[in-house]
Amino acid sequence: MDDENERYAHDDEEYAQLSLLRLLRVIGRRVGVLPGPIRRKKKKSLLDLPEEMFLHICSFLDASTLVHGLSLVCKQFYLILKDADFLWKARINHVLPNASHSLLCSERPGKLFWKLSCVAIEKQAALWKHNSMKKLKLSKRYYDATSVLLMPV
């Protein structure tokens, strides 16, 4: 019987401690010392990144992937990449340091088309960089234009 009384006394003590903790939490919230109920944190995604950090990540991708892939993922990515003329200009200047204007013109006059110019320039630079062109060695002979066009490939 003493064991039962001790067990009930122990249970009462635990209940009192839990009740006291609950009371302290309620008072703490009202006073502003303790935060409210614990909420699950929202999972972070690429959409939560600051625009500058997102653009820094984009700098590691090729222009074609950005224009034809990433900008189609969601509206936010599209809007960021659409308005980032400075990004396209910087990428073009990396490949062609003295470029002061876009190579392609847009349908609207006065608006330079930096984005697609960047894609075209990076594709051409990749062709030259990876030596994917066929090499043709000519001897010291004279070839006229017709002969060059008729040469076997």
From TrEMBL:
Domain F-box intervals: 43-91
Xref: InterPro entries: F-box-like_dom_sf, F-box_dom
A Pfam cross-reference name: F-box-like
Protein name, as recorded: Uncharacterized protein LOC112456036
Protein's organism: Temnothorax curvispinosus
